[in-house]
Design brief:
277 residues, alpha+beta, Alpha-Beta Plaits, five-stranded mixed beta sheet
């Protein structure tokens, strides 16, 4: 569109769509500044570091449900602001300190602090949802099981190997400290949440499929042969086939780029509307 505004200025426009949109104008790690103006003009996103700053990190997303949420993010936040005392305490006392701590952890590649802050903040966000009237339930039993498995693994090792975070929904974003840990994480996830027998593995694990190869998994027989994770004491650990729709393997990425090849765009360059499938 040949706009002259910089990315931070454009983020104020994107913010009217969603907080996620305003942060997504940059790659890497991004901070959304609260701002002080009543009209929100200084509530902008800024990039802390680019996507190459901490390129050891690997992300695996467990898509637990792709269905529409019963309570939208916007509606839920409005109700929490109006009714949750915990949200008021969180905004005043907790978040400002955590933002400083998180920036330090990112700058210093301090995964232990990063993971502790990420998990704690996600859990408190969902505590605010429960503290809202009427309460909001974004996570489900599968979400809770994933948290339990990650916490048990981290405790057994003595330091965080994986961080988890959930936004306004049941889907888990799992951040592994390096590729080796990501491989072990994928093995654990496929042990507990194997695909249905009729599901094609290529449609069950999306994105960077090389992690599948690193994990020694080429088909259903390999998944069935996965051993019980050592931190699990119950020999007959239950498996939950079908409880996860699919997994996405990825890493911190860059921001939006201008495509020179129109065939790769999702929008029709003439109409601006989504292309037909």
């Amino acid at each position: 569109m040949n706009l002259k505004e910089n990315q931070s200025q454009l983020s104020a426009i994107a913010r009217q769509g969603s907080g996620s949109a305003c942060r997504s104008l940059f790659g890497g790690f991004v901070k959304w500044i609260l701002g002080k103006e009543g009209n929100g003009s200084d509530s902008l996103a800024v990039q802390l570091v680019d996507e190459e700053h901490w390129n050891d990190l690997v992300i695996i997303i467990a898509v637990v449900s792709s269905r529409q949420k019963e309570t939208s993010s916007t509606t839920g936040m409005r109700e929490s602001v109006e009714t949750s005392l915990l949200l008021q305490h969180r905004a005043k006392e907790v978040v400002p300190k955590r933002i400083v701590q998180m920036e330090e952890a990112i700058q210093n590649h301090d995964f232990s602090s990063f993971a502790q802050l990420t998990c704690a903040d996600s859990n408190q966000f969902h505590a605010v949802c429960l503290d809202t009237s009427p309460p909001i339930f974004y996570m489900n039993d599968t979400s809770h099981r994933i948290i339990s498995y990650v916490e048990r693994w981290n405790r057994s090792v003595g330091s965080p190997q994986v961080a988890y975070t959930f936004d306004a929904g049941p889907n888990a974003v799992l951040i592994a400290r390096n590729r080796k840990i990501a491989t072990e994480l994928l093995q654990r996830l496929l042990f507990f949440f194997p695909p249905n027998s009729e599901t094609d593995l290529n449609s069950y694990v999306l994105g960077d499929k090389s992690i599948l190869r690193d994990a020694g998994i080429d088909g259903m027989k390999d998944i069935e042969a996965l051993p019980l994770p050592p931190e699990i004491n119950n020999i007959s650990a239950q498996k939950y086939s079908g409880d996860v729709n699919y997994f996405i393997c990825t890493r911190p990425g860059g921001g939006p780029v201008l495509l020179s090849d129109d065939s790769k765009a999702l929008l029709n360059p003439k109409s601006g509307l989504p292309k037909e499938a």
